[in-house]
């Protein structure tokens, strides 16, 4: 006999308590954690992918050839991303609290501190792990004669999603369990990571290459975090409806693939421009203000060819992920033909828009004396989160309206 699951509001053949045990309590009772998901996943674009792009460009133009230069770039950039991760993680938690409080009118100080501790700890640890991986990948790529632009940013994007989601789930669940018996743990975690800030700031200031970013690089990462948080609000509002619960599984996939592809393109264009001079210098390689879609996707330019290749990777890439999700019985959504058509349409439209914006944005920033390695990728990946989440939510709502309401796959 089927019974209604108390936590996901679906008919189950197993007892409700067994189904409930498969859910993480923190995501059920502190739903603002969902708002953190796009913001923290966006950190891979704000920090790790920017780091990968910056170091790839430095490696390609010969700024990491000697051991002294290599060590200077590593220490300065690692300290820089720890500063940015801590600050942005803290601001993301504030945004999650505000966006969660305004619609519901309910505020809990315990939940607010939990969100702060989870966000800061996740951002810090993920940036530390991914930063070290990126450095190893870039050094290895150079020794093997491979262009780091083609390797580092995709690895940063894919590993960034996996590591960040795993850390956020584990840390928030662990801290939530401590709320009742050890309420002091959450504020202690916040205080510990914030107390480390002066150390990272001092190290980053000693490096000329990172000193400038330390002072001027906050605008893109903070604005990108705010944009991603709006996407998180859309996700939170949508998955709160049991009819659209499956969207939580597909959101990291569509946003991860879109951010991955556009970051590769932005990094390639930036490296291409750096080969001809410094940002702000007049150059034939950056002559246009607003490119036409034809010049972005159908010209003989090397960056146009890479845009076509990246766009063609969308369908096979997503088909692999959809097959994996279906095989693991993840989500609350049966992969019907009409669902796959709507999902693929949203994914293709997302990447098409992002690649066009990247072509315009990187050249626009270059012409205004802004290094695209530091400024473009945070905006692009944040826009990818917002566009992907919005299109996916629209697809789920349209599917529901036209009658494709299968919701019987897994938890």
Architecture blueprint of SSEs:
Layout (H helix, E strand, L loop, with lengths): L2 E2 L6 E2 L3 H5 L4 H5 L3 H9 L1 H18 L6 H38 L4 H35 L8 H26 L7 H11 L1 H9 L2 H9 L1 H22 L7 H28 L18 H5 L4 H11 L1 H14 L9 H31 L4 H30 L10
Antiparallel strand pairs: 1-2
Helix pairs in contact: 3-5, 3-7, 3-11, 4-5, 4-6, 4-7, 4-12, 4-17, 5-6, 5-9, 5-10, 5-11, 6-7, 6-8, 7-12, 11-17, 12-14, 12-15, 12-16, 12-17, 15-16, 16-17
Number of extended strands: 2
- Give the rounded overall mean pLDDT: 78
How many angstroms does the end-to-end distance come to? 18 Å
How do the SSEs run, as a string of H and E? EEHHHHHHHHHHHHHHHHH
Strand content is under 5%
Question: Helical content, roughly?
Answer: over 70%
Largest sheet: 2 strands, antiparallel
Give, in spatial order, the strands making up the sheet with the most strands: 1-2
Low-confidence parts? 1-22, 407-411
Q: What structural class is derived from the secondary structure elements?
A: mainly alpha
Mass-distribution shape: globular
Radius of gyration: 22 Å
The DSSP helix count reads: 17
Provide a brief overview of the structure.
Helix content is 74%, strand content 1%.
Give me some keywords for this one.
411 residues; mainly alpha; two-stranded antiparallel sheet; 2 strands; 1% strand; disordered N terminus
